[in-house]
Design a protein that fits this description.
This protein starts with a strand and ends with a helix. It has helices at 12-28, 36-45, 54-67, 73-76, and strands at 2-3, 50-51. The chain is mainly alpha-helical. It has a two-stranded parallel sheet. Helix 1 packs antiparallel against helix 2 and helix 2 (36-45) packs across helix 3. The chain has four helices and two strands; from the N terminus they run βααβαα. It has one domain (12-76).
Amino acid sequence: MTTSSSPSSRTPEEIEALQAVVDRVSSYQDGAPEGTVEKELRSALGETDVSLDEKEITALAEAIEAEHGAVQVSEILA
């Protein structure tokens, strides 16, 4: 897996992969039990070559739950 120390060092391909993961998880998160979004996010990330630290995963999961869709990875991880 590729590990980047900061969002600004991520390649466009990594951002694109992360956005696809977030879009996928966002599409079925509505009404999911608490903890499901983060679990599904971790699972979907495991299918990519991109890794995130705990803080980034938590930030994305919280954004997905709060926004109910329309989450832009580049804004959350900026």
